[in-house]
Structure formats: C-alpha cells, structure tokens
Amino acid sequence: MKKEQLIFDERYVGSVAVEHVSKFYGENFEVKALNNVSLQLFTGQFVVILGASGSGKSTLLNVIGGMDTVSAGSINFAGVDITELSDKIFSQYRREVVGFIFQFYNLMPNLTALENVELAELPGEMLAIDALKAVGLEDKADSFPSELSGGEQQRVAIARALVKNPKILLCDEPTGALDSKTGKMIIKLLMDMNKKKDKIIVVVTHNSAIAECADRVLKISDGKIVSDETIKNPKSIEDIEL
Amino acid sequence: MNKVLKKVRGRNIKSNFKQFLSVIFIVLLATMLFSGFMTNSFTLKSCVDNYFTETNLADLWVNTDKVSTEDEAFFEANTTKFDKRLQFETIAEIETLKINSSASIYVYEGKVSTPYIESGKKGCLIDKNVAKDQKIQAGFHDISFSYVVNYQGTDYTLDFVERLTGTMSLDERANTYNSWTVVIDKELFLERVKEKLAEKVVGFDENLFEGIAYNQVLVKTDDAMQTSTTIKNYYDSGATLSKLVYMHGREEVESVKLLNEEVEQSQKMIYVFPIIFLVVAVLIILTTIDQLIVQEQKKIGILKACGIPNKKILKHYSFYGAILCTIGAGLGVLFGLVLIPEVMFSRYGMIYSIPEDYIKLQIPVWWLVALTISMIVLGFIVAFVRCYKILNKNPIDCLRYNLTASAKKLKKRKKKFKKMPISLKMAFRNIKMKPLRLVMGAVGMAGCVALLLSGFGIGDTLSKSLKNDLGKVFDYDISSTYNKSDFKEKLLGDERIEFVEDYSRVYATLSVDLESDKVYVYQIAENSKIFKEQLTGDNVCISKTIADKFGLEVGDSISVSLKDKSVKLVISSTIETSFKNGVFVCKDLEFEETFVSKGVWINTKESADSEKVAEFVNEINGTNTALTIEEEKENVKGRIMSTSTMTKTIKVFGIMLAVIVLLNFIFLILKERTIEIATLKVIGQNSLQISIAVFIEVFIMAGIGMILGMVLGVPLMILILTVNKIELLNYIISIKFVSFLATFFIILITIFAVLFVCYLKIKKVNMAESLKSVE
Ligand SMILES: Nc1ncnc2c1ncn2[C@@H]1O[C@H](COP(=O)(O)OP(=O)(O)OP(=O)(O)O)[C@@H](O)[C@H]1O
Ligand SMILES: [Mg+2]
User: Does ligand 1 come within 6 angstroms of the Cβ of A209?
Assistant: First the structure.
C-alpha cells in the first residue's frame, strides 16, 4: 500500500536516513550501482561525495532526490519512507523538499531564465526574480537558455533549486562543465544558501579540492561507501584552488 | 507555476510549429472531406426534394390519344390536381444561330410540373442549360418548328416562328442536355394555331375548330397506385371514347430517377471514401501526436524533476492533442462546407437544370459537431495515453531517454552491423531505436499509396467498363437515330462511310416468374458486324447483369412485354455489358411502332474523321443525334460524374497525404537529430553524406508502406466500388499494370521531392548554434 499523504514527523525534519539501499541494473542485476548503502544526512551539513567515474554517485543522489526508484532498502526523510510514496506524493516531495542541480543543467529550452525559475516557485517562499538576483542573473531574466553561457545556465538551475527553499539540495557535478572561476562562484553560492544551516546540501564532484571546504566528505567506490569523514574546520571557499 | 506551464505550451507550439501544422493539416483534410461531402449530400437532397415539391412534380403521366371533356370531368373528380398537356417531338430550329435539334414541346397551363422560370416571363420558354450552351437569348431569338392540326377532318401543317420569352427548368426534364425542352403557354399556343389556320383556310370559323388535341394528363395524387388503377379502369370501362396509350409514374421519369440516384450516390460518398480517408488520417494523426509527445520526453522529465504533479503535466500535454485537432477540425469543417458543395453543385449544374433558388446550403450541424468533437477527443486521448506512459517512468529515465533506449536495443545486434557502411549502420540503428515510428510512418504511407492506387483503379474500371460496351460489345464509329426515309440512301452515298447497320430499341418489361423489370430490347441484324455476339434465327443474348439479377442461365426462358404484346424468348447466350444492358435479339419482335426507336450504327472508313462524318449525318438527318463513339463515352462519363469526381479527389488527396506523412517523418527525424547532424558536420562529413542515413530510413519506411499500400489498394478499390454501386453502370473491375507503375512513380517522385527538402534542411543546420542548443 503506497502512502497517499506526505506528513512529516516534525521531530525528524532535517534528517535523511538511507537504509540498506541497493540499485541494480541489467537483466540479471549484474550491475550494482549501489550496493547496500546506509548513511544518515543532517540538516546544516554541506556534504561532498567523491568517487571514481561509475562508482554510483549519481545513482545515490537520484534515489535520495526521488528521481529514481531503489531496488532494495528504504530512504527516510523526516520519518517518512519516500520509497513507499505514491506517484502523486512523490512529486510533492520533489517539489517541496528537494532541489536538484544537474551537471548539464536541464533547463526547459523554451522558457526564459526567469520562467525556468518560476517553474519551481512555491507559494510563501522566495520570488523567482529574487532567486535570480541571488545568483546574479537578474539582467538575464528574459534570456532563453540557448542565449546563456554554461555557467549562466548552471546559475539559473541553482536559482531554480534555490527558489523553493528546499530542505535537501542535491547537486550532481554542478561545476563539471565550468571553468574554475565560475565553478568557485557556484560553490560559493551553494554555501551561502546554507548560512542559516537549515538545509542538507549534497554535492557530487570529481574535484577533491571542493571537498576541502565541506563539513563532511563521503567516498564511494563500486556502489559502496568506503569512507565517511566529518571535517571540523572546513576551509573557506576563497582559500582553495579549484 | 500554472502561468509558466501555459507559457511552455505556447512556446512548444511555436517550436514544433511544423509538426503541429502537419497535424492540423491532416485533420483539416480529413474533416474537410467529411464535412464537405456530408453537407453536399444534405444540400442536394433538400434541393431535389424542394425542386420536386415546389414545382408540383406530377405523380402520374397519363398518355392518351386525346383528352376529352368527359375525361377532364373524370380527372377532376378522381385526382388532387391535374393538368392536360400537349406533348410532341419535333425538329426545332433557331435560324439566326443556325442551330437545330430535336425538341420536346410541351403545351400546357403548368399547374402540375410547373416550369420554373429562370429568366424572362411565361409564354415560350426554353431549358436554361440549353439556352446557355447554345447561347440562345430569351426575348431575342425566335424558335421555329411545325405542328400538324386537324380542322374539319383535314390535317394542316402549321409552321411556327415564336419569340422565346424566357428560360426555365422543367422538373421532369432536368437532365436533358442533348435535346431541347420547350414549354409553351396553352393560351398563347391556341391563339397562334387559330391565327395560322385563319391564314391557311379560307373561311376559317373559330367555332368549328375543336381545339388542340391534348394527349397527356399530368396527375397529382396522394396514392399513385390506387389512382392509376382507377384511371386504368376508367379507360377500360368504355365510359370514354379516348384511348389510354401509356401510363407511368415517377419511377420511369429519367430525370427523377437520375436526380434521386445522384442523391443516393452523394450519401454513399460520405460513407465510403471520406471514411476511408478519415481512417488513414486518424492513423497519421496518431503517429504524429504520439511522436510529438515522445519528443517532449526530456522536457517532461525536467518538469517531473521539478516536482510538477503528474496531473498537471498530463493536462498540459493532452491539451496539445486537443488544441491541434480543434483547430484542424474547425477549419476543416468550415472549408469543407464552403468549398465542396460549391464545386459539386457547379458540376451538378452542368448536367441538370436545377433552379438556383432551390440550392440552399443545408448544414448537418449535429453531425459536424459530433465530427469535430470526436476529432478533438481523439487528439486528446492520443496525447494523454502517450504522456501517461512517459509519466510512469522515473524522471531520471526521461532525462536520459535517448541513451537508455538505444543502448538496450542495440546491444544484441552488434555483430551484424560490422561490415555495413556507416550510413546504413546509422539508419538501421535509428530504426531499431524507434521501430514504432517507422511502423506508423509506413502505415500512413500505405494508406496514401492505397488511396492513390484505388483512385487509378477506379479510373481503369470506368474506362474498361466504357470500352467494353463501346468498342467491344458494340463496335461502331457513329450511332444515330433517324426519322427520314431517304436517310440511309444518302448515308451510303457518302464515300467516307464503310457500312451502315440498322437496329431498333424498345423499353419493355422483362418478366421471369413473378419478378419483372424494365429493360431495353435491342433488335439487331442477323450476324451483325457491330454486335460482338453473333446472333441468328431465334438466338437471344442477354446481359450478364440482367441474367444475374433474375438468376437466369442459358436455356431459361423469359418473356418480354410491352402494352398488350408479349413475346417468349429462350436465352442462348449471355454477354458482359456495363451500361448498355439489355436483351439482344436478331429479329423484329413486332412491338407497337410508336415505342420503338430506330437507329443506325455507322462504321467509317479508316481514313475518315468520324467527327466530321457525324456532322454530315446530322445534316442529312436534320437532328443532332448522331454521336461518335468518343462523344458517347463522354456523355456516359458525364452521367457518372460523382464517381469520376471521386476518383480525382482520391488521387489528389492521396498525394497530399503522402507529402504530409513524408514531411512529418523527416521533420521528426531532423528535429531529434540536429545535434547529431551538427556533430557529424564538425567531424567533416558533408551534407549529402549525412543526408544519406536519413534517406535510407525514409526509403525503408516508404518502401514498406508502398508494398503494403499496393497490396491494400486493390481491395480498397473493390470496396469503394461495391459500396458506391450505381444503377447506370455495372463496373467491370479492372486495374492496369500501368496504374501500379503510375502509383509507384508518383510516390517515388513525391519521396524525392520531400528528400530534397530534407537535404536542404540538413545543409542549413548551423553547427555552432545546434551544438549549443540545450535541447
Ligand atoms: N540505466 C542504466 N543502465 C545500466 N547501468 C547503469 C544505468 N545507469 C547507471 N548505470 C551503471 O551504474 C553505475 C553507477 O552509475 P552512476 O551514474 O551512479 O556513476 P557516477 O558515479 O555518477 O559516475 P560519473 O562520475 O561518471 O558520473 C555505473 O557503473 C553505470 O554503468
Ligand atoms: Mg554521475
């Protein structure tokens, strides 16, 4: 029986518990993209996930963000097992709880920057134009994605995630396609978003330099978490070289 | 969020404009045909009904030798309404125009079967189509003819020269495009007769003149069967001195029969070919909308990733289907009801003299509303179903759509592809990735090819049917009626004429057991050089259609009767005929002279121009009834106009559909592959090299469609012809090899034309722009 309502237990808001999650691909489930992964994420954390190509980083992010289903295990957010949600509530979860930033932006090509952000606007939260301002793109509000540079497109994508003030912000290689200067700016933007420490921000990256300014660094290999470090005094983004 | 979704919708319409346009266009074509032919049929029906009601078309025609005062009293008492009439056939002439023709002259008051006056006024009226064709002007031209009157026991031939006062259409002669119909007012005619008698007869006394001998009574009645019995009893009883010659009802009036058949045919038209077209169109609409939505997969993925509820996305995309079909169906219905009846009626107008006042557009509103709504629902459902399927996937799968789909399907076949050239490899992989699109495209093409082929096939069938009768069964160059005794001598005196053969024809009743029907009986020379089947002595040949209708076989006996005379005949052979159906004998069955129409068949010498000879025949005959075999074919074609119109429409629309299907297929491919194409360009392939992969795909699709269509075309043609059966013509179904070739080449040319457009499009792909594009 799938749950028809999204009622969070207030006591647990702000934590995500991934329990024994596996994700298999292939006819005989021979590809184990995630292999019995368990971990807990807490509000206020800026988590960086590192790992070689094909190790399962994106897969982990996707299942947490409700973009993909799991083969086994459960994912709890605020006391609700999201793997059990009905389609309707699942999209409510994506809309209200999760912000997702992709490596290749995934903007609607036929909407302007502002409209792309408006797409995610939630009543009572930030206005789309303010979100664009926050990423420094208010003057490009009426441009279409094809008229923006890669970095600008990524900033629109961030604004789109930002505008709904999500509890969980998942970023899959947000700087992967960008130069170091722009990349740095993007990371700074992400960190600034969490000044109030009211979000979980997870950033998947190949770039270990980024890890230096994270609160916590997870390393994945072959679908398994091989290390989980909490960093006491992360560096400021200004101090690192990307 | 809702506001933004609306914007997405608007911009999607812009960016997918070509596909949308093609969906709209297909919906438009399909609904247009349907609404047009439906409106046409309703309009024609109301027009014909109106015509016959408004002009008070008679229910019974009573032909007698003379209408006496007692007779009038009888009709007064036994009918709702009646009108006595003088009807005679004569040669009429308009000297100033140097034209003449056999004419039917009607002299009566016009209470029943009232002539509808098109222009001018009552007096001496001529059929409006004849006037138009021959450029005869009422109030300007005189018509001359002669008429024989009896005065005091002596016959006087009176020569009339009468100014035409107007043009008209006469309901019972609405289809006479060959001979003239003239209606003269009773009073006017009587006055002229008296004047002329006074000139001719010394001491003419008006009081001794018995008046005109009316020979026909037009009867209006509620119960034609009952009344006809009463009338027959009256004449049989001896209460009157006049004699009943022949009585018939509406069913024997050719114009009524033809117009009713035209109505029937127009009704069948709705059911046959617009429906077939609709089915083909629906298939194409299905494909196109389906593919449109499939292409939106990535966008749907993004929307889903943003957490837009499924319901909203579903609503959003289903709206596409609905809006496209709404526009298409709306425009189609509109164009259809404006254009098609217009075209059809201008053609009806050439054959029938229908008063324009009675042509009032009858719009079958509810049918059209139902049609529009079903198209909208169709569009909605297709979009809905496809979108629903996509929504069931995980958002991440939608975003990775192209990659996942290809990888899975291509894996297993890797080895086979190894040795092929790269373009062929690409084409095959693309097909493998989207087999459904290929299938749907092929089905669409098959529909178009089938339509085109059946169009050609119907044309072949018509010409085969005509050629069978005119050329095979009857092999002459010119046919003519005649009424002058020295006619034949004069004919044979001309050196261009090889030989002349007499024949005669009677419209008699054929009965077998209890069944009976009217048929033509041809009385032909023994061992005729014209008629294919050699008849001698008591031989009787009968048309296959008639034999089949009555279940007759060689050796069976039939009886043929006309008035009191009845002849028993034994069938000795059957012959396949198409419209010259009848019973063929080689002796005079001795039916009453007045009902037998005599004619000649003429074969000209090889070197002679039969058209010129026909003119010559008309000259010596004093009529224009001589027709070359080609003219006769044209006449028949005119009479089966609906069918030939249908043939043309099918062909044209078949080609149009093919163009849309192909363009649509190509646009879909190009849109999806802009990045791929740009990449190939960057690598250094030229436009032609890139195009070839697309061409191969198109050819495979069109090839499958062509084969399927060729196979389906023949049954489709047979289906159309069977449903669209008409009395006038028995279709001898045939399809020439040339028609297959023609279909093949027309489609091939269409394909090449479309591929050229495709090539230009590929050439135009801008590398920098496409590779940057996020789509
Ligand atoms: N749809 C799929 N079908 C089959 N295998 C898949 C699919 N998606 C991912 N995989 C496999 O799952 C494993 C994990 O993939 P994932 O995308 O999570 O890797 P990643 O760590 O994000 O790699 P990268 O750093 O290159 O993005 C890989 O081995 C990949 O081959
Ligand atoms: Mg990845």
Answer: no
